[in-house]
Structure formats: C-alpha cells, structure tokens
C-alpha cells in the first residue's frame, strides 16, 4: 500500500480522529520530522501508543527526496530537484535577498540575508504558456498538499525560509484544494509563516480567485497578466481563452475590495510582442483604477527553439517610465536570478543543468517582501 505524507494535514488528522487520537498530535510530529527528516516513528517521544502503529501502517515522514541540488554562480539561487514517491520530479528554487536593500522611512531597513522559496504545485502544467518551459511538459499530475509542504521541509535544511511564492511548476489555482491546505499548514505551527509573506500566482483562474480571499485571508495574489489585451493574451497564453480579460478584471476588483490588498501583476517582456509603448499605455489604462505593483520580467530563453526574444533594456525602461510617470503605477523590473541553472522565471522544467556550482560572490537583491511592505 502506498504510504501518505505525514504533512498531508487532512489525511493525518482524519486518521487520528477515526482512531480516537487528538489530531493536534500532528503538530509535534511535524516539528520532529522537520528537525529529524530521516527519523523512524518510534523515535518521536510522548505520542499515544495507538499513534505509532497508525503512523507505521499509513504514513511516511517524507514521501519525496532531494535528488539533486544546483547553485547559481553568484550564490543567490539554489535549485532543488525533488523526486516524488511515484518517480516524478518537481523543482523548487531558493532565492537569497538582502533586507538592507529595502527601504523603511526613507532609510535602508536593518537586517541581512533572507530567503524566499519558489514552490511548485503540479508536475508540469496544462496552461500551455508559449514562453514558459514548464508549459512545454504538458500536465502530468497534481501534487498532494503534503508534497507541496515537503518542498518547504527540504528547503528549510538549506536556508531560513522567510517568504513563499507559488510561482514554480504548475498553475496553483488548478490544484486549489491541495494548495489551500498546504498554505494553512505553513501558516500554523510549526512553520508559522505570516500570510503576508505567502504569494500565490495564477494566470487568472477566475472562479478560484473569487474564493481565494475567503479561504486564505491575508495571502497575497500575483496575476500573470503578460498582455494588456485579450488578443495578445490568447496568442501567448492559450488558456486565456477560458478566462476573458474583462471577467478577470472583475474578479480582481472583487478580490481587492474584499482583501484591501495590492495585487502583484507579472508581465513578461517579449520583444515585438507586448513591449511596445502602445502596450504600456494599454496596460496603464487597464490597471489605473486598481492598487497594483507591476513587475516587468525579462524573458528567459528556454532553448534554441524558442519563438521569442528578450526585449531590449531600452524597451523595458521606456515601458516602465510610461507606467510610472503617466499612470503613477508602481512598476519594478525583476533582476533575474538563477539563469545559469535554469532556475529563473519561466525556466522550470525537469532537467539537470550541466554544472552543479557552489556559491561564489553574492550580489543580493530586493525581494517580494520589500515590495509588499512598501505598499
């Protein structure tokens, strides 16, 4: 019989309740496993005797394993290739940032290096975005909530994870129940992450956006918009046909009214496709009534067969200037991290980079938390 992950919260709590065991015993079990990932169940102290036999028969401490680890040459990024119990692989990425590059009251914020973990929610993805490596895999399977949480467990052995972004492989809102359950585990003991430090990204799954704030209040929303008009969106994001732009904007307006939170807008810059001044004005008009932060993302090559080219720095700068000066919309340009290990935005696909490099000189940058805290 296939054993379940002990981090599948609904499974372990249901099994404990059925056996007459207080489901809150899951918390000390999780804490012990995080500290001792290679443990056997009998090592965990002070559990009811019935819990040990149940754990042995139905659960594993970790159903996944860290297969390979790759470090970028500048030391800011580490990519984890994680093998699942069924033999499939997913990738997660640790990105290291410097707190002092954020501003507070006009002064650099105190602190030092912190880490953000980019998490996968599916093996592959059915959205088929033409600029994204994961989309080229097609959809393979959803991850369980435990497999999602286990990415954080593996990463926590390598870095002190402060922020989580669901921007890895897959469309998180197409695996809605598992993602919501995993986030709830991360928000509570023993992880106790703040909801404002968790961001869920989506291409715009409207029906799921409509219920996200009620299920995960305080969690941030990022939308992979990538084009200001429906025609271009459909051209580069085939799934956009199912989510018309106006319906998406209506859902975002409702989300913002309920949550009173700014929304992150992800916009990949594709040369000659969506990076013209006209597109900048169209985007500004589309979003001028919203409270948003727009993140312009340089296109990351996904192989020699890619149909797209990266926008010039001048085009990106002009695009940003229009949004900032004409529409007064806060607009950032993402500093790419992990390109040399295929760990940058849009590059996650199950493969193994040629080099397994160790960290060198570190050039640390701002992260999403700085954007959030300055809103």
From TrEMBL:
GO biological process, one term: rRNA base methylation
Keyword Cytoplasm found: yes
Protein location: Cytoplasm
Entry's Gene Ontology cellular component terms: cytoplasm
Cofactor: [4Fe-4S] cluster
Keywords per UniProt: 4Fe-4S, Cytoplasm, Iron, Iron-sulfur, Metal-binding, Methyltransferase, rRNA processing, S-adenosyl-L-methionine, Transferase
A family per Pfam: Radical_SAM
Domain Radical SAM core, residue spans: 111-340
Gene3D superfamilies from the UniProt entry: Aldolase class I
Location (main, coarse): cytoplasm
Alphabetical list of SUPFAM superfamilies matching this protein: Radical SAM enzymes
Transmembrane segments: none
Keyword Transferase on entry: yes
Top-level taxon: Eukaryota
GO molecular function terms listed in the Swiss-Prot or TrEMBL record: 4 iron, 4 sulfur cluster binding; metal ion binding; RNA methyltransferase activity
Protein name per its UniProtKB record: Dual-specificity RNA methyltransferase RlmN 1
């Amino acid at each position: 019989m296939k054993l379940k992950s002990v981090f599948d919260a609904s499974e372990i709590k249901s099994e404990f309740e059925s056996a007459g065991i207080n489901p809150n015993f899951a918390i000390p079990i999780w804490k012990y496993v995080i500290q001792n990932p290679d443990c056997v169940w009998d090592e965990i102290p002070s559990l009811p005797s019935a819990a040990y036999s149940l754990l042995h028969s139905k659960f594993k401490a970790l159903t996944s394993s860290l297969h390979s680890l790759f470090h970028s040459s500048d030391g800011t990024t580490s990519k984890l290739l994680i093998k699942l119990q069924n033999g499939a692989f997913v990738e997660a990425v640790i990105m290291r940032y410097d707190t002092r590059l954020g501003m507070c009251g006009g002064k650099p914020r105190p602190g030092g290096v912190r880490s953000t973990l980019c998490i996968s929610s599916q093996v592959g993805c059915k959205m088929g975005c033409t600029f994204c490596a994961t989309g080229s895999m097609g959809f393979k399977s959803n991850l369980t909530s435990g497999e999602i949480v286990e990415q954080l467990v593996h990463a926590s052995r390598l870095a002190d994870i402060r922020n989580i972004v669901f921007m890895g492989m897959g469309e998180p809102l197409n695996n809605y129940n598992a993602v919501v359950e995993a986030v709830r585990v991360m928000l509570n003991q023993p992880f106790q992450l703040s909801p404002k430090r968790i961001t869920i990204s989506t291409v715009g799954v409207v029906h799921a956006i409509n219920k996200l704030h009620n299920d995960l209040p305080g969690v941030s929303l990022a939308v992979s918009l990538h084009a200001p008009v429906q025609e271009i969106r459909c051209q580069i994001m085939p799934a956009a046909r199912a989510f018309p732009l106006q319906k998406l904007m209506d859902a975002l307006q409702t989300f913002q009214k309920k949550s009173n939170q700014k929304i992150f807008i992800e916009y990949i810059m594709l040369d000659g496709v969506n990076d013209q001044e006209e597109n900048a004005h169209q985007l500004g008009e589309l979003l001028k009534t919203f409270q948003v932060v727009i993140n312009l993302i340089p296109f990351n090559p996904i192989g020699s067969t890619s149909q797209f080219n990266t926008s010039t720095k001048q085009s990106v700068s002009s695009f940003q200037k229009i949004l900032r000066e004409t529409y007064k919309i806060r607009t950032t340009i993402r500093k790419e991290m992990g390109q040399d290990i295929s760990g940058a935005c849009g590059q996650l696909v199950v493969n193994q980079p040629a080099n397994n490099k160790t960290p060198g000189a570190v050039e640390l940058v701002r992260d999403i938390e700085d954007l959030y805290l300055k809103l």
